[in-house]
Every structure is written in structure tokens, then in C-alpha cells.
Amino acid sequence: MVAYWFISHTKAVTERTAVNYRDTLNLPQTEFSMRAGLANKEPEYINDWYAMDLYGKIRKKGEGKTPFILHDGPPYANGHIHIGHALNKILKDVIVKFKTMEGYATNYVPGWDCHGLPIEHKLFQEINKKKEEVDSVAFRKQAHDYAMNFVDIQREEFKRLGVFGDWDRPYLTLDPNYEYWILKSLSELCKKGYVYRGLKPVNWDIENETALAEAEVEYEDVTSPSIYIKFEIADAGQLGLPANKPCYLLVWTTTPWTLVANVAVAVHAAFAYAVVEAGNEILIVERSLCEPVLAKGEVTDFKILKEVSGADLTSVTYRHPLKMRGDCPVVTADYVTREDGTGLVHTAPGHGADDFQTGLKYKLDVVMPVDEKGVYTHQGGKYAGQHVWKANKLIIADLETSGHLFRREDIVHSYPHSWRSKKPIIFRATQQWFIKIDHDGLRAKAREIIATQVKWVPPAGEERITAMVAGRPDWCISRQRYWGVPIPALKLKDSGEIMLYPEVIDHFAEIVRKEGTDAWFEKDIGELIPRGFKDAQTGQSEFEKTFDILDVWFDSGVSCQAVVKDMIGAELPIDLYLEGSDQHRGWFQSSLIPAVAIEGKAPFKEVLTHGFVVDGQGRKMSKSLNNVIKPQEIYENSGADILRLWVTSSSYNEDIRISKEVMARLIDAYRKIRNTLRYLISNLYDFDPDKDVLPYDKLQDLDKWALNKLGVVSRQVIEKYNAYEFSRVYKLIYSFCNEHLSNFYLDILKDRLYVKAAASSERKAAQTALYHILNHLVRLLAPVISFTAEEVFRFMPKDKSFRSVESVHLLDFLEIPSEWDNPRIDEYFALLINLRPHVLKALEDQRAADIIGASLEAKVTFQTASDRDLTYLSQFGEQLADMFIVSQAGVQKVAEVPAGLDTDFANTTISIAKADGNKCVRCWKYRTDTDAEQLCGECRSILADGPEVPVS
């Protein structure tokens, strides 16, 4: 409505008179454009920020103040940033910026994960070679260059988002000093007894020939062969069964290939098992599953001979169905369930964590017939040389031929996949290095710290990570790859035993600090160990190098040592970690475990998590669905501030939706906020805050109302910033700009701003309020739309307290003067604000009926039978007309009204008529005191005291 008035008024004044009254008005003036042009302007601001060393000035401004540290979880340097990266980095930047403006000493050191499978996998794809086809040292140098190239690319992409940080001194896990701290942390854990080498089943990525961490595994639905197998009991007489019929344990599995490594069948000691006679054979199955399982094998005619307990079944042995070994035992295990299968579980300690524990308990052989490529070795017997996935078909055929297959069907179920290759993985027992989670009460300490020393946002994060820490296995920290920090373990030449010595790690760490970790692959073993070093137990002094590398989660997990303590010089715990919710099983755990083991405390005081970015329909971003939205496309076309507004307007605790429609709505919202800022700036073109600011008691009631609203909103915004409720920050600011300002205060204010004498107290009072509003808004908006706030800052008037400040990002939030807190003034206007929509609708109805044109052609009369309404409306006097942008407004007492406006005005109605008098050519109001020049008395008075009126 403000813009409509300005355009129409200007046109009318210039068309209707030869005297140029337009130049006597205080019309808005500014070079702050209505069109944002963010895509072109933002890179210029970035250049300016770095030319002035803005981040250095922010750091200097914080000297001596209370520190606030948000520690950056490092993305992988293996490609361009995606929309999830943008979400994460913008959230971090908003927090760091608002904490800076609150007066904290912030220090945001961005980092990158530069080692490991994500980078190695991408590089192998790029060079189109396999692991065995490359030289390890040459490949490591290629991997280094590959990672550094994407560090540079991502750094510029993050800077383009308006993210502030120490970009010239980031932390890189491939930096020799960082690698030094990785090794020193490993050494400390060894000294404390947490690290050991052992044979255990681990998640194994066949595609990349390496162990995987739990956090590197994701689950996808697959179709697998579901088979029911008959394991023939070797000594059925132990159960008192007839010897003239074969007796079988009925076992179920979805991984037929693991049967090669089967060494036992597990049952639940307390379950009842049915001994079923079905034709010429006897089958044993858990009692409650008996009928549905037999039905699968189309067995309908059967007889239950007896029931036995699981404990009873441990008295028998069975013959291996593939004849891989001699008779095998039946054992008990608590993890056996009745949920599916048969209640009897095929057990292969080499292929599963539960099976492995059962194997330890009963001293079962750990058979591992599968190599690192997923191919059977000689231990696979007739299947040697076969890939496990292809062997499924052969094994099922052999079981059918031998009569051991009871039923075969295909099922769809969730199965673990490598997060990098996206291929199914296997569980494979190998010798690996582990951190023992229960050593010295580590698990219990971690759970206690999670519950009592860390704040989780949202609170559900505590339950999530508690459950994961409670159930996690020991941490496998070794990988069979090239690109990473080598584990400096030594192989004793005489015995072949592999050992890890803290003194060797420490010695190697010092070498790494100067030369980097390639030294392990390039130097002779004698140069890598302390002079005269011997194994303390055996006295052996002849060693060979081993070539496992450390899990990259260990690299980033010890960043609290390498970055927080060494680079930043802070002590643990620091203020905040912020990452996606998947990091409860990733970086949050890999950071927590070493910190608790080494320091006895958490690395963080608070952990905030966000959801994942999905499309407008809630679907995961996917090239196949053609729904991928790249941040680069958004900031190159619409500007990074639109992305920043999307992030802060979203409820990030859940999955965050993005689509063209979502972005279009945000562009519209941005435009409304920008236009409000432009209007404020354009009406302060002649306002000098050091001279023109009026004291509070000289302001009009409407101005005091606006400042009261500003104070309320400002406090709420700061509160929501500190609660990390950024969507509420956005809604509060948007609502203030759109509803309180544009639709009410600024809409009413234009007559005072444009028509009153330039230096009048009425206009200066309005400008004083506008200045305060702009001065607060630009600061409140700076963490969110950082580029736009900088642009506003350059155009707005400034008082001497910050006139020399170079950037909005060097300002602090402002305190709210206590005198602005004015609940009375809020109540004073509350009924009028509720009444205004009724008046505007009545005016629109009259306009649609061609009774009036512009609202200034109208006269509004409130007819009321309410003494309250009569008193309330009458107190506004001549200002009542300004409240509705009409020429005249009045109140008339009547005995009754046919129908009230609403519950607030149940005894009041509105009458609209043509305004009295003639239109003033200057203010465009209808007045009864216009002269021959068509000027009203007020405008005549203003012109009489002002400059000469120009003639066109």
C-alpha cells in the first residue's frame, strides 16, 4: 500500500497542476535498489570482506571476551559441496555470527577429512584402476593432490555461501602436524591399554577390500534366497528317538554362502521344540513356529511325537549339510528368537558378531574360507575360487541334490551396504586393531557423561546416542587401504607376531611432524623406529613394517586434540558440535570415545543435530529421480542469501524439504523483507542520528507503539537465536516486517513522512523510530541474510558510535532501552489494530462498487452503541483518519446497531461515504479549507514556512 500511495500521489501531483508541488514533498530517496541482484553483488562483498581482513578484525574485536567455540565436523574433500553441506555450514555460520554479535570471542576453524575410503574410492574411479594395479606411494601422492584440489574448491564454495571462518588456516587431517596428533592420540590409548589386535568378524567391503566402521554402513532392501535346511542329527538316540528314521534340525538362513563356515547350531535353552514325524523323517523346530514352517514345505500331515527343551538339544550333534567338516555341536544362545525362522540358528563364528561371541563361549573354530575380494579360498572346498554371491546358487543346488533343502523362497529384507561403493558387504573375521570399549569402564563413563554433562538438541539425541554406545562393539580402527595415517605396527621377524609399541608410535610421530606419513612407506624400517629398539618380552630386534592404516573416523575423532587443544589452545569440553543426525553413530561417537579415554571428559558441552535434505515430496535426493538441487545453482541464479533464508526458515530438527516451489516462496519472503528495509532507508536520506534523534518523550504514541513492538521482537529473536530455533527467528522478523511495519505502522506513517515539513517534530519523531528500527533490524538480520545486511549497513545513516565501523558484522546486538517497554501503548492500539481490517474491507467494497476510488476519497463514520467504543475511538481525534488512510473519520453514538463487526466490536458498525470538501493538490486529502490554488490550510502553512515552490 505504501508503494501504491507514493506512485499514485506523485503522478497525480505532477499531472494536475502547473505548479510543481512534488518537489515540496519529502519523497523517499535511496540508491538501495528494489531489485536485489544478489548473484552479482554477493561476490563483490566477499572480495571486500577479504580485502579488509574482516575475519581478522572479528577475532581482534573478541580479544579478552568470553570465548565461544563451535568445532567444525570435517566434510570429505572428494567433490563439490552438495545441498546438505550448505545446510550444515550455514547453520554453523548463523550460530557463530550471532554469538559474535552477542559479544563472545568466537573462533571458527573449518576443517576437512582428507584421508580414507571416500577419497580413495573417488580417485580409483577417476584413474580407472584397482588397488593392486597401483604403487602405494605414487597413489598416496595422487590422493594428496586430489584431496587438496577439492579442499580449494569446497573452500571457495563455502565462502560463496557467506560463511566466515579462518579459511586461510583450516585444519586438514593430511597436514603433518594434524597427523602427529593422530599418532600421539593412538599412542596415549595404547599406553592406557585400550588398543589390542584380535580376530573378529568386521564389516567387510568386498568392492574396496577393507574393513568398515559401523558409521560407514547403511542399510538397503535386497532380495535374498531364504532357505530352510535339514541338518541331520548324528546321534538321535540321545533324545530317545527311533533309529529307523532320519532326524533333522530344521535351520533357516538368508545367506547360504555362509554355510561353508558353519560349525554349530544355536538354540534357546528355555524354548520348547517340537519333535515332528512327517512321513519318513523326523523334523525338530521351535514349537510355536512348527505349523507355519512346515506349511512352507507343504507338510500338512504330521505328528508331534514329543517336545524337548533347547537345553535338551545340546546333547546331540549333527552332520554338516555340505560335508565341510565332522560332526558339529548344538549350543545355546540368548539371541535366538521366535520372530522368524525356525528357532534354530546356523552359527558361523567367522561371519557374525553374535556367532563370534558364541564361538568364544563354546571354543568353536573360527572358520574363514573367504578372502578380501569375497572369493572362497582353498578352505571353501569344492567352492574354492567362487565369489560368495555367485556361490549361493551352487550351494542351494547341492543342498537340493543331497536332500537337505526343505524349502527355498526369495524374500526382500534390509541388508548392510557400504556407504561408499553402495554394494552389499559381508561379515568377515580378520585380524584387526581394535579399541576396547569396556576397558577401564570406558563404556560406562561415556554413558554417564552423555547423561549428565552434555546437552543434546533436540533432546531425543541423548536417547539415540546412549543406545548406540550401550550396544556398540569394540571399535575396529584398522583399514586395509593405501590412503591414510599408517598404524606403525611392527611384525617380529622371528615369530611373525604383530605388535604395536607406544615408543615406536611416538618416535614415528616426530618424523611425521616434519615429513608427513609418506615416510612410513618410503623409509627403511631402521629409520622409523628408535635406535636400538627391542621387543621387551622377547628381546627381538628384527622387525618388518605392516601397512594397515587408521580408520578415518579416528582421524576426525581426535580433532579435539589436534584442533581444539593444539591449534585453538582451548581446553575440553568446548561449547558446541553441530552435524547431521547420522553422526550419533559417527563423529559424535568417534570424538567422545577418545576424549573420555584420554581426557576423562566429553569433547563437547552441547550437541546439536539436524535432519537431511529431501525434495518437496519428502524423497531422498537422487539422480535417478532427477530431484537433486545443487547449492551452486541457487546462489548463481538467486543469491546465497536465499539459501541462507531457506536454512533458517526450516525446522531443521526434522528432514528439510527443498524444491523450486519452496525456493520461490522464500524469494517472495525475501523480497518483502528487502522492500521493508528499503522503505526505512529511503525515508532517512536527510536524517542525521547525531542531531535529529528525538528523546522518547517527544515521540508520538504510534512511534512509541512501534518501538515497543521492536523491543519485544528483538528480545524474542535473541532468545530464539540462543535456543537455536532459527525458524522462529525467521518468523518473528518476517512477521514484524510484514505485519507490524508494512501493513500497519509504515502504511499509516506516510503522511507524516512525505507531507509534513522536513524538519518538523512530527516527521523527526517518525524518522527517529525508523532509525531505531533499522539499526536493530540490520543487526538481527546479519547472521541470517549476511550479504543483504551488509548492503543495508552501507546505505543506512549511522551515529558517531559506529560511523567508523567497516562492516555490519563488526557490530554487536543493541540493548533495548527500558523506556521502550510500554505495555500501555500496546493496549492503547490493540483494539484499533483489530478494527483496521474491517475498515479496509469496507473501503474495498465501496471501491468495487465505484462509490470511491482511492481511500483518501472516503469519509469513515463509526456508528456505535457502545460507550467503551465511543470513548476509545474519540480519543484519537484527527489521527483517526490517518489510521485508515482516509480524509475524514469520526464517531457517532447511536441507540443500537443492526449487527456488530465482531466480538471485539459487537455494538459498532462502519459507514463509508464520499469525503467532504475538495482534494488538496499537494497532500491529496479531501479538505473543506482548500483555496483557489487547491491547497489545504495545512499545506499552505507548510509551504509558507518552507522553500519557494518551483513552477514546472
What layout of secondary structure does this protein have?
Elements: H1 2-16, H2 38-51, H3 54-61, E1 67-68, E2 70-71, H4 83-101, E3 105-106, E4 111-112, H5 117-127, H6 136-160, E5 171-172, H7 176-191, E6 195-205, E7 210-212, E8 217-232, E9 247-253, E10 264-267, E11 272-278, E12 281-286, H8 290-296, E13 303-309, H9 310-313, E14 317-318, E15 328-332, E16 344-347, H10 353-362, H11 388-402, E17 405-418, E18 426-435, H12 442-452, E19 455-457, H13 460-471, E20 475-476, E21 478-479, E22 490-492, E23 498-499, H14 502-515, H15 519-522, H16 525-528, E24 543-545, E25 549-550, H17 552-557, H18 559-568, E26 574-580, H19 587-599, E27 604-610, E28 613-614, H20 631-637, H21 640-649, E29 656-657, H22 660-682, H23 689-692, H24 701-722, H25 726-754, H26 761-781, H27 786-795, H28 823-848, E30 858-864, H29 867-874, H30 879-884, E31 888-893, E32 908-914, E33 918-919, E34 926-927, H31 937-945
Parallel strand pairs: 1-3, 2-26, 4-5, 9-12, 10-15, 19-27, 26-27, 28-29, 30-31
Antiparallel strand pairs: 6-7, 6-18, 8-9, 8-17, 10-16, 11-12, 11-13, 14-15, 18-20, 21-25, 22-23, 22-24, 30-32, 33-34
Helix pairs in contact: 2-27, 4-21, 7-14, 7-18, 12-13, 12-19, 20-21, 21-22, 21-25, 22-25, 24-25, 24-26, 24-28, 25-26
